């Protein structure tokens, strides 16, 4: 029994609706991947089949999609119906997210740049918006040592 194994399984489910479906079809997969007691495996099997897990997966995916949608709207539009397939493939290849919107977006753009299956419109939008993301990321890195609240700190402490 390991709390860490239970928590790891829960986070893996949240990040992968496909893994949820696999475990719903064959709960024995749990004990093959994680060191769990029968009670823990039973709890996880119930959790993965719940509507709450479905909502949890949607929220996770929405949080990973938001940086890309906000920073590369033209790319998302140019990808059209391919966006779901491509971003899902990216998430499979990069299961660990980065909470910095620009870093996460740059990683997705770099992933796409290495692919050869993008349309001309998507490739054009990618080049333009990836360059803009890199510029913004460089500007953010240049400001990383600054104290964002230095100008207003005295009024905040009063």
Report on the architecture of this protein.
The protein is mainly α and 158 residues long. The chain contains ten helices and no strands. The protein is globular, with a radius of gyration of 20 Å. The protein starts with a helix and ends with a helix.
Number of helices: 10
SS elements, strand count:
0
Proportion of β residues? under 5%
> Pairing-aware structural class of the strands and helices?
mainly alpha
Low confidence ranges? none
- Spatial extent as radius of gyration: 20 Å
Average of per-residue pLDDT values: 90
The general outline is globular
User: How far do the termini sit from each other?
Assistant: 51 Å
What is the N-to-C succession of helices and strands?
Answer: HHHHHHHHHH
Report helical residue fraction: over 70%
* Main beta sheet: none
Structure described in brief:
With 158 residues, the chain is an all-alpha fold.
List the helices and strands and how they pair.
Layout: H1 3-15, H2 17-25, H3 29-33, H4 38-48, H5 51-71, H6 73-79, H7 82-93, H8 101-113, H9 120-142, H10 153-157
Helix pairs in contact: 1-2, 1-4, 5-8, 6-9, 8-9
């Amino acid at each position: 029994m390991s709390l860490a194994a239970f928590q790891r399984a829960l986070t893996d489910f949240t990040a992968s609706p496909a893994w949820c479906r696999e475990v719903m079809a064959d709960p024995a997969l749990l004990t093959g991947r994680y060191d769990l007691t029968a009670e823990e495996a039973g709890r996880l099997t119930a959790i993965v089949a719940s509507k709450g897990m479905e909502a949890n997966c949607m929220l996770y995916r929405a949080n990973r999609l938001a940086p890309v949608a906000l920073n590369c709207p033209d790319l998302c539009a140019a990808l059209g119906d391919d966006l779901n397939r491509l971003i899902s493939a990216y998430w499979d290849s990069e299961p660990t997210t980065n909470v910095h919107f620009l870093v996460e977006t740059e990683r997705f753009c770099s992933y796409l740049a290495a692919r050869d299956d993008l349309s001309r419109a998507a490739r054009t939008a990618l080049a333009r918006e990836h360059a803009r993301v890199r510029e913004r990321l460089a500007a953010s890195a240049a400001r990383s040592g600054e104290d964002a609240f230095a100008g207003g700190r005295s009024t905040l402490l009063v």
